[in-house]
Design brief:
- The radius of gyration is 22 Å and the shape is elongated.
- The longest helix is centred in the C-terminal third of the chain and has 17 residues.
- The protein is α/β, with parallel strands linked by helices.
- A seven-stranded mixed beta sheet has the order 3-2-1-4-5-7-6, with helices on both faces.
- The model has no long low-confidence stretch (mean pLDDT 96).
- The structure holds S-adenosylmethionine.
Length: 307
């Protein structure tokens, strides 16, 4: 049988929440907040929450299957001091986590992306370390553990102007996560540990939502509707379109890529009296950005030229 989650309660839908996230409100108490990036199966997140009931633990993970496994463990352990977020840690840190709101950040065995042409996917380059610094409280720390020497040295080479003092060493296995066990089973008995203590603050403000403008147009012909993709600093790619002639509603699927945030959502063109309303379809959890506005602009232009 598949290991479904037992409760969705610890899951925070960060796109639908008011940003920055209010930890006091989300946990129902004020306590130091620790963040784990890429928690995988959630073993460390759960163990840490059990060992530190006086702390609030937050995990961010890219994969839904991993989030489900962690949710199951959180419920089985009866923990109330853990919240999990599904998504890429980078835009979440930029857009949803307030400066100086975290006591500790942890990343255990982040993907090392060993091939040179994959280095762009690596976490914790200089800019990301500055971002982590800005989200940490005074004297907060970032703890990184990896099996991969070359990746470890790559992170060390990005420390300039990040406001951290570094402590680096090799350590025996001690966190008992799936990946630590995997490398241990493969014969690796020493891992690379980096502790970064915050000494200076890097002032990287929260990236705020833009005020989003929705539109009304007089004319719309679904048969001739063809929104044009945008390929500039922001990429907007239109996918399929559906039209319900009875309810007079058209939906077009769109992918918007900008900086490190990729959003997949639907835009609807819906009959309202004698005009057509253009807006992101309700329930899509869209973060209002310049790219989303460009997508709405493109739909408006396509509606107008369809008539
Ligand atoms: C090699 S696994 C390590 C998992 C776990 N920490 C462990 O020690 O077993 C790396 C994890 O980071 C997650 N991940 C990769 N990039 C991420 C990102 N940008 N934001 C959040 N999680 C990410 C992956 O989905 C994966 O679960």
């Amino acid at each position: 049988m598949r290991a479904f989650y037992r409760s969705l309660k610890p899951l925070v839908l960060w796109r639908e929440q008011t940003r920055p996230l209010d930890w006091g409100q989300l946990f129902g108490r004020v306590a130091p907040v620790e963040l784990e990036i890429g928690f995988g199966s959630g073993d460390y997140l759960v163990a840490r929450a059990q060992q530190h009931p006086e702390r609030n633990l937050v995990g961010i993970e890219l994969e839904w299957a991993s989030v489900q496994r962690a949710l199951r463990k959180i419920a089985a352990a009866g923990l109330t001091n853990v919240r999990v977020l599904l998504g890429d840690a980078r835009p979440i840190l930029w857009r949803a986590i307030a400066p100086q709101s975290l006591a500790r950040i942890v990343a255990l065995f982040p993907c090392p992306w060993p091939k040179k042409h994959h280095h762009k996917h690596r976490l914790f380059d200089q800019q990301q370390l500055q971002l982590l610094n800005s989200r940490l409280c005074e004297q907060g720390e970032f703890y990184l553990l990896t099996d991969h020497k070359e990746y470890f040295q790559w992170v060390l080479s990005h420390l300039t102007d990040t406001g951290f003092t570094a402590f680096a060493r090799t350590v025996p296995p001690h966190v008992n996560t799936k990946y630590e066990q995997k490398w241990l089973a493969g014969g690796q008995t020493r891992f690379y540990e980096l502790t970064l203590r915050k000494t200076h603050h890097c002032p990287i403000p929260l990236l705020e939502d833009i005020p989003m403008e929705t539109y009304c147009v007089q004319q719309f012909d679904p048969a001739r509707f063809q929104p044009a993709d945008v390929k500039e600093a922001v990429h907007v790619v239109f996918k399929e379109m559906r039209y319900d002639p009875v309810r007079q509603i058209a939906m077009t699927r769109v992918v918007v890529v900008e900086d490190d945030l990729t959003q997949h959502f639907w835009i609807e063109v819906v009959r309202e009296g004698d005009q057509w309303r253009i807006r992101p379809a309700p329930g899509c959890g869209v973060v209002p950005t310049v790219g989303v506005q460009r997508a709405l602009d493109a739909v408006r232009a396509a509606c107008e030229s369809s008539a």
